[in-house]
Amino acid sequence: MPHHSELVEIPGTEIELSRYSLGTAPLSGLFKKVSEQESDHVVQCALNSGMNYFDTAPLYGSGVGETRLG
C-alpha cells in the first residue's frame, strides 16, 4: 500500500513526523469497548498509510492505549 501521509520535519532536528497523528484513546476502549483485533487493524492501517506519529497517555484506558501500540 502506498504511503499517503505527508511528513514534516521538526525545525532544528532531523526528525520527520507525519502531519497527522493517531490518538490512542479510542483504541484503549476509553469511549466504548474495542477488541484487540480491531485496535491492531486500525494501527496497521495507520502505519501502512505512512503515519508515524501516535498520541498516547497513561490515562487512556489505564495504559491500554500504549500497550496496544506495542
Total tally of structural domains: 1
Distance between the termini: 22 Å
Q: Strand order of the main beta sheet, please?
A: 1-2
pLDDT < 50 stretches: none
Strand content: 5-15%
Q: Tally the helices: what do you get?
A: 2
Instruction: State the secondary-structure class.
Output: alpha+beta
Mean pLDDT over the residues: 91
Secondary-structure element series: EEEHEH
Percent helix: 25-40%
Specify the biggest β-sheet: 2 strands, antiparallel
- Tell me the number of strands: 4
Rg over alpha carbons: 13 Å
**Assembly state here?**
single chain
* Rough outline: globular
InterPro entries: AKR, NAD(P)_OxRdtase_dom_sf, NADP_OxRdtase_dom
Domain NADP-dependent oxidoreductase: 22-68
GO molecular function: oxidoreductase activity
Pfam families: Aldo_ket_red
Summarize the structure.
With 70 residues, the protein is of the alpha+beta class.
Structure description:
One of its GO terms (molecular function) is oxidoreductase activity. This protein has 70 residues and is an alpha+beta fold. It has one domain (7-69). 27% of the residues lie in helices and 14% in strands. The protein contains two helices and four strands. The chain has a two-stranded antiparallel ribbon. It has a two-stranded parallel sheet with strand order 3-4. The protein starts with 6 loop residues before the first strand and ends with a helix.
